[in-house]
Amino acid sequence: MRISKRSGAFPGSAIRGVNEEVVKLERSGIKVYSFHIGQPGLPPSRELLLEFTKELLERPFEYSMYTPSSGIVELREAIAEDYSRYSGVKISSSNVSVTAGSAEAILAAFMTIIDDGDEVILFDPTYLMYEPVINYLGGRVVRVRAREELGWEPGEEDVKAVMSRRVKAIIAVNPDNPTGRVLSDSMIKLLVDLARDYDAFLIYDEAYRHLYYEGTHTYAIRYSLENVIALNTFSKDPALPGWRLGYVIAHEDFMKVFNRVKQYTNLNPPTPAQYVGLLYLRKYKEKYLSETLPIYKSRMETMYKAIREHLPETVVVKPKAGLFMFPNMEPYLRKLGMSDVDFVMKLLRQCHVAAVPGSAFGEGGKNHLRLTFAKESEKAIKEGIRALSQCVS
After folding, report:
1. What is the bridge-based pairing of β-strands 167-173 and 201-205?
2. What is the pLDDT of residue 19?
3. Averaged confidence pLDDT in the chain
């Protein structure tokens, strides 16, 4: 087969690789402690889905048709109103484009801004989807080490040192996947200032902006709408990952080009999902967050305490937001003589605990594990961390 050489830019997700192994084990009847997939462990609002199902049955034709590529007007208006309320910055529906999850938002955003040779700054470690897309489009990744001793925030001078006119974008995932880090206000302002000074963009991934256990989210568009592209999703706080719905917030001038480009990545976001998202924003969001956030916080506290108790040699930063912990397993892996990649497979096959190797997110994640506390109950979290500790003894 004459396969594209450029397809080699996509190595395949380590997360998906682990998940395939998990599915095999579970199909054979084995209980696996699922600490690997970054998706909510609580179901979406039952009332929301019941109301939508009723509407779907009443208007099946409308919910099965194409929509504008940028999304239905009602949803874009609802997103603009919701985002304005939380951010404190007035935006309009013309600043909003609805996407098929944040994955399409990432792809279409980079298709809109990257030319051959453009540099894109990534923190290391960070979410693993960005680099392959940048490489495929002919960009060049410049990595800045996120410092574990700073709670996984990069050093200000480290970021300044790599800025130049070749830089087209800086990527900041906040709250972060995989580390659970929350960037300081001063760092966010610095990143926006640098983007403005060098005529670049700050790609601001806010997937977990509502999942805070301490403090509040900082909205980068407060400092500049012209230089910030905010990426958001309905996969996390509404617990709708399979519906594939996300959106972008950016300046109108960017949106004009972005909406033209995204016609070629996906004709329109899934129509039923758009109406579910609309109903969530209009009626169910506040109630659902008030019910689910305390549960996630309790699960986070349970995992943190279990790690400290059963894996005392690890260094782990207690997350202020998001769904992840990123313990440093180096003392244990050194004794075992194993890499984090090899250990993850041993952990899964022998101890039935599913995790993601930290090195999948960059060199800075080497010898770490990405663990999510979202899916399992507190009882299962305790059991799973205990099983993990037995696998390193």
Report:
1. parallel
2. 77
3. 95
Residues 6 or more apart whose CB falls under 8 angstroms from that of 104 comprise 246, 262, 265, 266, 269
Residue 5 has pLDDT above 90, yes or no: no
> Which two structure tokens, joined as six digits, stand for 310?
């059963």
Rounded CA separation 333/136 (Å) = 33
SS3 content of the chain, % helix, strand, coil (to 5): 50, 15, 35
Q: What is the pLDDT of residues 349-366, one digit of tens each?
A: 999 999 999 999 999 999
Cα angle 236, 18, 140 (rounded to 5 degrees) comes to 75
Cα 105 to Cα 385: distance, rounded to the nearest angstrom:
35
Distant-in-sequence contacts of 190-197, Cβ < 8 A, 24+ apart? 190/156, 190/159, 191/159, 191/220, 192/220, 192/223, 192/224, 192/227, 192/228, 193/223, 194/159, 194/160, 194/163, 194/170, 195/169, 195/170, 195/224, 195/227, 195/228, 196/224, 196/226, 196/227, 197/163
**What six digits make up the tokens of 129?**
């989807």
Long-range Cβ contact pairs of 116-121 (< 8 A, separation 24 or more): 117/166, 118/166, 118/167, 118/168, 118/169, 119/164, 119/166, 119/167, 119/168, 120/167, 120/168, 120/169, 120/170, 120/171, 121/159, 121/162, 121/163, 121/167, 121/169, 121/170, 121/171
Q: Please choose, from the candidates 251, 234, 203, 257, the residue with its C-alpha nearest in 3D space to the C-alpha of residue 69.
A: 257
Rg (CA), the chain: 21
Distance CA 271, CA 67 (A): 7
User: Can you list the positions of beta strands (E) in the chain?
Assistant: 33-34, 96-99, 119-124, 140-147, 153-154, 167-173, 201-205, 228-233, 246-249, 324-325, 353-354, 356-357, 369-372
Amino acid sitting at position 193: D
Q: Hey, is 228 helix, strand or coil?
A: strand
Residue 355 CA: distances (Å) to CA of 5, 66, 372 = 31, 39, 8
Contact 278, 72 (CB under 8 A): yes
